[in-house]
Amino acid sequence: MADKLECPVDHGSHSSDQSCPVDHKSRTSWTSVLSGSSSAHPVSPSSLSTEREVSSIPRKDNGNWVYPSEAQFFAAMARKNHNPHAPDMKTIIPIHNAVNERAWSELMKWESGRGGEKCGGVKLVTFKGRPNDLTPKARLMTLLGYSAPFDRHDWVVERCGTRIRYVIDFYTGRGAGPSSNNVSFYLDVRPALDNWEGVKMRAENIWQDWFGSVRSSSTPSQL
Question: Is the N or the C terminus of the chain less surrounded, counting Cβ atoms within 10 Å?
């Protein structure tokens, strides 16, 4: 069915059987971060897997979003002349999928206790990759000397008829240890401040972080 042919990262505004939601610029961002970390064994494009993994992220129109296969990811980049390397697909696809699962997990922490379960759960409605658009927070952090995110996504979810846009900044680094070459990721997931619901959620989170920690530190320990 057509609703099984997309994933929760916007790969382009066109719709086709090989389209998947991280736009082509975002795909380039991911390959630039992860290329070169694959096996040295040669891999031809024709040998790439066509199998797709079903995500844990619910769609609004039933079912879950589906991630692209190795072959689809490679073909989409090749169509846009992004010079993909077939061996990199073996590394990029599982990390791409795992990072997006983590993004959904972090998003659901914000949604916890807000009543989405009463109407079938929170659903991902739309998504957009915006790797060239720094969020105000990311811009401020770069001015303070921190590295810029290598990618950004905007995800719109629906909770019982209310739509909330979430902003996700993707940062990368290296694993611990002087000899580690493993790529690690940090995700900054938060509601956008473009409507009252997002403002309220952010304010409640700050209140909880501040007064929750004060309350915890002022509670006498039990012996």
Answer: C
Task: Write out pLDDT tens, residues 182-220.
Answer: 668 899 999 999 999 999 999 999 988 887 654 444 444
- What is the C-alpha separation between 139 and 146, in angstroms, rounded? 9
Q: Which residues pair with 185 in a beta bridge?
A: 172
For the chain, the residue count is: 223
Closest CA to 170 of 157, 189, 145: 189
Please say whether the beta carbons of 174 and 147 come within 8 A. no
CB 54 within 8 Å of CB 64: yes
Specify which residues 159 forms β-bridges with.
162
Q: What is the number of other CB atoms lying within 10 angstroms of the CB of residue 128?
A: 18
Collapsing DSSP states into helix, strand and coil, what is residue 58? strand
Q: Per the structure block, which two tokens stand in for 146? A: 């921190």
- Listed in order, strand segments (DSSP E) in 42-195 are 54-58, 64-66, 123-129, 151-159, 162-174, 183-191
pTM comes to: 0.77
Q: Which of 197, 188, 129, 215 is nearest to 158 (CA)?
A: 197
Helices (H), 133-220: 136-143, 196-218
The answer to whether 135 and 167 have CB atoms below 8 angstroms apart is yes
